């Protein structure tokens, strides 16, 4: 084991790290989460990878979890911070249940709580290093929102985190429409996830799709997507341009 | 906002540590090298530390940090056992380690593998890497030497091994990592934990299998020259 110097930053602009709490950088991270509204509720997809820098270290991480009766939370970013957020939410839901008054926190309220949580940590320069997607249905009303580690939050018909912002959202903007069926919703999410698999280095081919409707939450078993490599230009890249690198 | 925000892989941690579940319990394994820079401060350290009668932890990273965390958790678990009136579960031990690792994530540099046996869940392994993520796994690898073992375990790991298969796998893996990682070396120590109790084993460095480009150790060149071997000395 290394008797290294304590984890001091290598420049002199930051003071000793023991003075105040501030998160410096994430260690074990999850990549994109993609979600959309469909006819009966929300569909959300995330792979099961936990990366450690460039190593694809953990391949069985569940990055989507049900919250209470009406919500589903998906997270990208630092997994330990996501685990801590789940603990906060456990307390929140427990407190809500203990009122025993027939009312329960809906997705809009949970999203608001998360927004306050993330933004207040950001203001203390000690963020929870996550981008969150919160979806749910309560009394027929579908809700889909997102919060980032700096507290940026909004709701929309389809959202994505991380690489998904760049690769999935353009697809969703083009192909999403109101009242998608379950099958069409799943196919659309799979189209997004396949592109992410091709183009995101931290993506792995093992994902789950979660559904939340008025009836409740279902998270699928882990599965893998087929990929296509059979373009002739892939087999013979130099055919149309002899001498190319 | 660029100062230290590079999301590169965290710096490597000297050591190879492994925890593997098998049908009946767990096997923990580790090398024995503690280094101060390039110097090997201790060539026979024991990186598998007891937390309770039935739960042990493999330590990697900063020696000081991992020792402190282990000591605190051992202390908490001791009190917890008294209050509970029965042995603590592996899950509780792992969560206490997580609590300390997560709440002090800015200052600690230690990756831990908690392994043990309890009557409720049987043999369990929990990995707690840098940052304080808690992750239950059928097997876990850690430390700088583990980089060389991802491919090996992808191929060699099987569900439902016997105790001996699991222990042989662990010894082989630590030995392979020692062969390639400068920060790992010395002996291989293993700890087997199951319903019957705990067994410690010791595999000295010179008794391990030889790998690629490694030679059988000799007492002296003179023995080779004097032996009636058909190979003459080549200069």
TrEMBL record, chain A:
Record organism: Hibiscus trionum (Flower of an hour)
Short name of one Pfam family: Proteasome
Transmembrane spans: none
Function of the protein: Non-catalytic component of the proteasome.
PANTHER family documented for this protein: PROTEASOME SUBUNIT ALPHA/BETA
Lineage summary: Eukaryota, Viridiplantae, Streptophyta, Embryophyta, Tracheophyta
Gene Ontology biological-process entries: proteolysis involved in protein catabolic process
Annotated compartments: Cytoplasm; Nucleus
Subunit structure: Component of the 20S core complex of the 26S proteasome. The 26S proteasome is composed of a core protease (CP), known as the 20S proteasome, capped at one or both ends by the 19S regulatory particle (RP/PA700). The 20S proteasome core is composed of 28 subunits that are arranged in four stacked rings, resulting in a barrel-shaped structure. The two end rings are each formed by seven alpha subunits, and the two central rings are each formed by seven beta subunits. The catalytic chamber with the active sites is on the inside of the barrel.
Name listed for the protein in its UniProt record: Proteasome subunit beta
Assigned GO CC terms: cytoplasm; nucleus; proteasome core complex, beta-subunit complex
Entry-linked InterPro entries: Ntn_hydrolases_N, Proteasome_alpha, Proteasome_beta4, Proteasome_bsu_CS, Proteasome_sua/b, Proteasome_suB-type
Family membership noted in the UniProt record: Belongs to the peptidase T1B family.
Automatic annotation (TrEMBL), chain B:
InterPro entries: Ntn_hydrolases_N, Pept_T1A_subB, Proteasome_bsu_CS, Proteasome_sua/b, Proteasome_suB-type
Compartmental location: Cytoplasm; Nucleus
Keywords annotated in UniProt: Cytoplasm, Hydrolase, Nucleus, Protease, Proteasome, Threonine protease, Zymogen
Pfam family, one: Proteasome
Gene Ontology molecular functions: threonine-type endopeptidase activity
Gene Ontology cellular-component terms listed: cytoplasm; nucleus; proteasome core complex, beta-subunit complex
GO biological process, one term: proteolysis involved in protein catabolic process
Record carries keyword Cell inner membrane: no
Catalytic residue list: 15 (nucleophile)
Chemical reaction(s) catalysed: Cleavage of peptide bonds with very broad specificity
Residues making up the signal peptide according to the UniProt record: none
Ranges in coiled-coil conformation: none
Assembly behavior: Component of the 20S core complex of the 26S proteasome. The 26S proteasome is composed of a core protease (CP), known as the 20S proteasome, capped at one or both ends by the 19S regulatory particle (RP/PA700). The 20S proteasome core is composed of 28 subunits that are arranged in four stacked rings, resulting in a barrel-shaped structure. The two end rings are each formed by seven alpha subunits, and the two central rings are each formed by seven beta subunits. The catalytic chamber with the active sites is on the inside of the barrel.
Role: The proteasome is a multicatalytic proteinase complex which is characterized by its ability to cleave peptides with Arg, Phe, Tyr, Leu, and Glu adjacent to the leaving group at neutral or slightly basic pH. The proteasome has an ATP-dependent proteolytic activity. Component of the proteasome, a multicatalytic proteinase complex which is characterized by its ability to cleave peptides with Arg, Phe, Tyr, Leu, and Glu adjacent to the leaving group at neutral or slightly basic pH. The proteasome has an ATP-dependent proteolytic activity.
Family in the record: Belongs to the peptidase T1B family.
Identification of the protein by name: Proteasome subunit beta
């Amino acid at each position: 084991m290394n008797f290294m110097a304590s984890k001091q930053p290598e420049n002199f602009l930051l003071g000793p790290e023991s003075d105040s709490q501030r998160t410096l950088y994430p260690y074990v991270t999850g990549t994109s989460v993609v979600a959309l509204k469909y006819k009966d509720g929300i569909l959300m997809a995330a792979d099961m990878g936990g990366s450690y820098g460039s190593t694809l270290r953990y391949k069985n991480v569940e990055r989507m979890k049900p919250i209470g009766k009406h919500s589903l939370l998906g997270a990208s970013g630092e997994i330990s911070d996501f685990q801590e957020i789940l603990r906060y939410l456990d307390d929140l839901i427990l407190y809500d249940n203990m009122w025993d008054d027939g009312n329960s926190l809906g997705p809009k309220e949970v999203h608001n709580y998360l927004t306050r949580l993330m933004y207040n940590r950001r203001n203390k320069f000690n963020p929870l290093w996550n981008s969150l997607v919160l979806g749910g249905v309560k009394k027929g009303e579908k809700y889909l929102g997102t919060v980032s580690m700096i507290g940026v939050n909004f709701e929309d018909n389809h959202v994505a985190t991380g690489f998904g912002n760049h690769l999935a959202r353009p697809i969703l903007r083009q192909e999403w429409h109101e009242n998608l069926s379950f099958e069409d919703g799943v196919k659309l999410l799979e189209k997004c996830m396949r592109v992410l698999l091709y183009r995101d280095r931290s993506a792995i081919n093992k994902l789950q799709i979660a559904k939340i409707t008025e009836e409740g939450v279902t998270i699928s078993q882990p599965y893998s997507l087929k990929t296509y490599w059979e373009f002739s230009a892939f087999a013979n890249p130099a055919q149309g341009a002899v001498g190319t690198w | 906002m660029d100062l230290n925000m590079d999301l590169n892989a965290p710096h490597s941690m000297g050591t190879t540590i492994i925890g593997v579940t098998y049908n009946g319990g767990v096997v923990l394994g580790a090398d024995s090298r503690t280094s101060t820079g390039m110097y090997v401060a201790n060539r026979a350290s024991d990186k598998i530390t007891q937390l309770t009668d039935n739960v042990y932890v493999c330590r990697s990273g900063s020696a000081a940090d991992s020792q402190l965390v282990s000591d605190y958790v051992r202390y908490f678990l001791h009190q917890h056992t008294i209050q509970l009136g029965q042995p603590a579960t592996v899950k509780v031990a792992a969560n206490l380690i997580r609590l300390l690792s997560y709440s002090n994530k800015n200052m600690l540099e230690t990756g831990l593998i908690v392994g043990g046996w309890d009557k409720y869940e049987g043999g369990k392994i929990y990995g707690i890497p840098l940052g304080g993520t808690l992750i239950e796994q059928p097997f876990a690898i850690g430390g700088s030497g583990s980089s060389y073992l991802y491919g090996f375990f992808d191929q060699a790991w099987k569900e439902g091994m016997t105790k001996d298969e699991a222990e042989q796998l662990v010894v082989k893996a630590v030995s392979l990592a020692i062969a390639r990682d400068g920060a790992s070396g010395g002996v291989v120590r293993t700890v087997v934990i199951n319903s019957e109790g705990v067994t410690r084993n010791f595999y000295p460095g010179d008794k391990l299998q030889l790998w690629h480009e490694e030679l059988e150790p000799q007492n002296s060149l003179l023995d080779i020259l004097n032996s009636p071997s058909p190979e003459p000395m080549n200069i």
